[in-house]
Write a structure and sequence with these properties.
CATH topology of the largest domain: Catalytic domain of cyclic nucleotide phosphodiesterase 4b2b
Oligomer: single chain
Order of helices and strands: HHHHHHHHHH
CATH architecture of the largest domain: Orthogonal Bundle
Number of strands: 0
Number of domains: 2
Helix content: over 70%
Largest sheet: none
Number of helices: 10
Shape: globular
Length: 254
């Protein structure tokens, strides 16, 4: 609906769609940092850069090479080679570390009007940003769906945090810490403001037809802001109640 099929080639589109389907194949429920800290088999096999994403791609290749599963069998050797290279780029692009490494370049290209569809590197970075936009897509869904997705992801994060405590003897960061679950609205605001919103704003500059996604992010941000303010009000009320109770106790003692 955004009209990108007029700009991207059929091979690029196919690679992006299959990349979306395969980008988390055989995910282990923990992130790359955990793989590195725990010295997992995957970290030893693929190294500590985009560990899981390399595994997801290789898993996709394994399935494609299984008998009767190669949906690309009728492509020419050149198209097949190009497609597999694009598929690997697409899946690796979902590593947020790589996203942070490349997004400044993309933001600057778009804001300065220097983006050119005919430049190979520009197309590649656009495809990468599009993959991240899809990967973060839950934040663009209607509120009830978006909130449910957030809670599901958070429960997985808490399980990783539990393992960091028990197996690695580490104190997990806030988003992985079950003991800080009440901070979820604030953490979601930080996630949206630092990671999601800048990307969707930039994509809308490039193509205004993507604005409904940005509008949904803004609505969901407003919902998290409401929950955050409720928590702050509740904390303030509890603190006030404690203070007044404490002063009354002191009078009783005196």
């Amino acid at each position: 609906t955004a009209g990108f099929q007029e700009i991207l080639t059929e091979i690029e589109i196919l690679a992006l769609i299959v990349g979306c389907l395969c980008h988390d194949l055989d995910h282990r429920g923990t992130n790359n940092a955990f793989q590195a800290k725990s010295g997992s088999a995957l970290a030893q096999l693929y190294g500590t850069s985009a560990t899981l994403e390399h595994h997801h791609f290789n898993h996709a290749v394994m399935i494609l090479q299984s008998e009767g599963h190669n949906i690309f069998a009728n492509l020419s050797s050149k198209d097949y080679s190009d497609l597999m290279q694009l598929l690997k780029q697409s899946i690796l692009a979902t590593d947020l570390t790589l996203y942070f490494e490349r997004r400044t370049e993309f933001f600057e290209l778009v804001s300065k009007g220097g983006y050119d569809w005919n430049v190979k590197n520009h197309r590649e970075i656009f495809r990468s940003m599009l993959m991240t936009a899809c990967d973060l897509g839950a934040v663009t869904k209607p509120w009830e769906i978006s909130r449910q997705a957030t809670e599901l992801v958070t429960s997985e994060f808490f399980e990783q945090g539990d393992r960091e405590r028990s197996e690695l003897k580490l104190t997990p960061s806030a988003i992985f810490d079950r003991n800080r679950k009440d901070e979820l609205p604030r953490l979601q605001l930080e996630w949206i403001d630092s990671i999601c919103m800048p990307l969707y704003k930039c994509l809308v500059k490039l193509n205004g037809k993507l604005k409904p996604m940005l509008d949904s992010v803004a609505v969901n941000r407003g919902k998290w802001e409401e929950l955050h303010q409720k928590r702050l009000s509740s904390q303030a009320a509890s603190s006030s109640s404690f203070s007044s109770g404490f002063s009354v106790s002191l009078k009783d003692i005196n």
